[in-house]
Description:
Blueprint: H1 7-27, H2 34-37, E1 39-45, H3 51-57, E2 64-69, E3 72-77, H4 82-92, E4 100-107, H5 109-138, H6 141-169, H7 175-205, H8 211-243, H9 246-268, H10 270-280
Antiparallel strand pairs: 1-3, 1-4, 2-3
Helix pairs in contact: 1-6, 5-6, 5-7, 6-7, 6-9, 6-10, 7-8, 7-9, 8-9, 8-10
Amino acid sequence: MNWMKYLSLYFLISAIVILPGIYSLVRFGLKPSIEFTGGSRFTLVQSKSTPDTILQSFKEYTPVLESSDNNSLTIKSKEISQESVQKILETLKPDSPEIKLTDFETIGPALGKETIKKTANALIIASFLLLAYISLAFKQLKYGICAVLAMFHDTAVLLGSFSLLGYFWGIEVDLLFVTAILTILSFSVHDTIVVYDRIRELSHKHKNTDYVSLINQAVTETMARSLNNSLTIIFMLLAMFLIGGETTKYFSLALLIGTITGTYSSTFTAAPLLIFWEKHFSKNK
């Protein structure tokens, strides 16, 4: 099948997926968790008091109910000391004697800003290293640039998706989300390198074949491997998202979105970008 005759369609699909997310990122941004904004998170175990009653007791700290499971409540709030939490719990004990604090963490705003800075630095450093490595490995700058552009494509889809999820459903991004982004970048580039390596092998074997035909053959030969490899990961991540715990639910979702878009981009973004580069920027066109 001549996959590469639908270049405009592939770029159109990418634009349709990315542009709403980019708009949401610019307009609404991401909804950061306390790891980035600073604040406190604590878990209470109780049997009688209602969640509304407990939240009302912490109202001066702007509490938000993060999760509720049986008699356990996890609350996020502005920065508060553990001693202050204990004092407030004492006022609730006449109505709910069994209430107690089981988990507590607090992060200052300065540490949150430092986390954002380190995350941005990690993405920038990873991009430059991948650009240099792929360009050197394939001995042509276009391979490195096109692979990094495909990687940015996946990053834009993932960030845009979580911006929309944060605006409409209040889903926050945390350090696990950062881990998911870095994991997806490596997965996306790995899949792209497989396609590029096949293009290089075919170019050595068929020196008189035009470049578009080489890329189309490489995509055809690697398609089954890429799909089989990705589907096993997708099924596992889907199961984790549907039946996994609350703490890893959106981490699994981020990996799921990234795996799907990474599988797509390695074939239908990274390879078409090479053709686009060859037509418009190559000196030997």
